[in-house]
Structure formats: structure tokens, C-alpha cells
């Protein structure tokens, strides 16, 4: 896996990395992580209740992906928001019972139609999956890096939950798709009739409108301008 060594270089000592894949590649990724000194914390089975059927009828229908969660330094203390995962409200997951430890099998549907309204990415992940990963393994103010950002679901969820985000991708059409998704999120946030609630750990966080507008002007708009410049001048 060519990205594992550079990723280790930019992670802080207590930083962690998430990799998702199917049986075609996930075992090679796990081997590469261990070869480069990462300490594997969990392998998560992401079960897709709405997985497409197996048209060949010659093997079992592939209805899950595997996620590997690994720590940079075996002896470092990584972030794991245990109580948030145990006591949080996750109605989208039929396998998660209230006030019970989060287990390593997650039942989450593939991306909803609304998440693909500006176009599709071949490996796009659902927002619910990235929300859980970010809330579990990062804190507010942390920096989330996605070196294969695609349509930037990771970035959308990072910003929505108070993290900073760096996204990298070599495909210009997907970066343009990312811009559209961020612009939609910003547009919804700055409407005069802005009224929203963000579910977090079973409670609700209502951002103050003035503070939210300040955040948008300071981060989102500058980010979008830089991203547009990067897309249309390269």
C-alpha cells in the first residue's frame, strides 16, 4: 500500500488511521500497515443491508466491507471516545442497542440518493459511516486528513462535527464534486431561516447563528476559494 509510509510521517505519535476495502485489497493493506510499524486496533465489518445482488450466482453475495483501524505508535495513547460510542444515539444501525458497548460489526446502508445528487464516486462511503469514525477517534479541533478524498464525505463530516480537514485527490472531476457538496452545506447554513439541530451522543447541539456564520466565513469560504483555484488552474 503506497500511502501507508507517507501517512505515518504526517500522523502525530498518538494518531490513528482508518482504511476501508473489500477482499480484493484489504488484506494487502493490513499487511502493509504492520510492515510499516502500525499497531492494528480493530477490524470492523461494515454490513450493508442494501447491498446489490450477486448476478453471477456462483459465490456468496458480497454484503460487507472491512475497515482497519490502526495506531501509529504501539505505546502511544490514542483517542477513543468510548462513552460516545456506547451511549450515543445511532438509529441508523439496527445492530446497535442503546447503552451497550459498540461492537465491531456495523449495519449501515450504502450512501443515500441525496448524498449522490451531484454525481457518483465509485467508492463513496455513507455519511453515517464517516460520522461514526470521526466521532469515535477524533476530538473537536483535530485535523482529519483524507489522502484519497474523492467526493469529500470525510471532509463534510469533519467540518460538521468541529474538526479541521485536509483532502487530497488526483481526479479533477471528484474535486469539483467536492466543491458542490461543500457549497450546498454552506448554503444551507447561511440561509436567513437557518434552524437546525445536530444529533450528537443522543442529545442536540444547536449552533449559534452568529458564531456559525463567522466559522463559515473564516474556514469554509476560504477553503472553497482555494479548492476552486486548485481545480481550475491545474
Automatic annotation (TrEMBL):
<dbReference type="GO" id="GO:0008170">
    <property type="term" value="F:N-methyltransferase activity"/>
</dbReference>
<keyword id="KW-0808">Transferase</keyword>
<dbReference type="InterPro" id="IPR029063">
    <property type="entry name" value="SAM-dependent_MTases_sf"/>
</dbReference>
<dbReference type="InterPro" id="IPR001091">
    <property type="entry name" value="RM_Methyltransferase"/>
</dbReference>
<dbReference type="Pfam" id="PF01555">
    <property type="entry name" value="N6_N4_Mtase"/>
</dbReference>
<comment type="similarity">
    <text>Belongs to the N(4)/N(6)-methyltransferase family.</text>
</comment>
<keyword id="KW-0489">Methyltransferase</keyword>
<dbReference type="GO" id="GO:0003677">
    <property type="term" value="F:DNA binding"/>
</dbReference>
<dbReference type="InterPro" id="IPR002941">
    <property type="entry name" value="DNA_methylase_N4/N6"/>
</dbReference>
<dbReference type="GO" id="GO:0032259">
    <property type="term" value="P:methylation"/>
</dbReference>
<feature type="domain" description="DNA methylase N-4/N-6">
    <location>
        <begin position="7"/>
        <end position="179"/>
    </location>
</feature>
<protein>
    <recommendedName>
        <fullName>Methyltransferase</fullName>
        <ecNumber>2.1.1.-</ecNumber>
    </recommendedName>
</protein>
Amino acid at each position: 500500500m503506497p500511502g501507508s509510509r507517507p501517512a505515518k510521517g504526517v500522523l502525530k505519535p498518538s494518531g490513528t488511521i482508518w482504511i476501508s476495502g473489500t477482499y480484493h485489497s484489504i488484506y494487502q493493506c493490513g499487511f502493509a500497515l504492520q510492515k510499516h510499524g502500525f499497531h492494528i486496533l480493530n477490524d470492523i465489518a461494515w454490513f450493508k443491508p442494501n447491498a446489490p445482488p450477486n448476478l453471477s450466482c456462483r459465490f456468496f453475495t458480497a454484503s460487507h466491507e472491512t475497515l482497519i483501524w490502526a495506531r501509529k505508535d504501539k505505546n502511544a495513547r490514542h483517542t477513543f471516545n468510548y462513552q460516545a460510542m456506547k451511549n450515543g444515539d445511532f438509529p441508523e444501525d439496527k445492530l446497535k442497542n442503546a447503552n451497550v458497548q459498540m461492537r465491531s460489526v456495523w449495519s449501515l446502508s450504502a450512501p443515500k440518493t441525496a448524498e449522490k445528487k451531484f454525481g457518483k464516486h465509485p467508492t463513496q462511503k455513507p455519511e453515517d459511516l464517516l460520522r461514526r469514525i470521526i466521532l469515535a477517534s477524533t476530538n473537536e479541533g483535530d485535523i482529519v486528513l483524507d489522502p484519497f478524498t474523492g467526493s469529500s464525505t470525510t471532509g463534510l463530516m469533519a467540518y460538521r462535527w468541529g474538526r479541521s480537514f485536509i483532502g487530497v485527490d488526483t481526479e479533477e472531476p471528484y474535486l469539483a464534486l467536492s466543491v458542490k457538496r461543500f457549497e450546498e452545506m454552506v448554503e444551507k447554513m447561511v440561509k436567513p431561516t437557518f434552524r437546525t439541530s445536530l444529533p450528537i451522543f443522543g442529545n442536540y447541539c444547536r449552533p449559534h447563528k452568529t458564531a456559525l456564520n463567522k466559522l463559515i466565513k473564516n474556514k469554509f469560504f476560504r477553503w472553497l476559494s482555494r479548492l476552486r483555484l486548485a481545480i481550475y488552474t491545474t
